[in-house]
Amino acid sequence: MSEPPFVPRERLKKYQEHFQGIQKHTFLKGRYDKITSGRGIYNMSHGIGKKE
Fold this sequence. Notes:
Elements: H1 9-28, H2 33-45
Helix pairs in contact: 1-2
């Protein structure tokens, strides 16, 4: 019996895409935008706000 993965693969993939995108944005933006991008992580993980 193989036990299911800790996090569903679809969710993992979604999180990976979000974090990769956020890393790019924080890299391009200034120091203060990291705070707003942190808020963006919250919104994206909860399906709030615009989706690109």
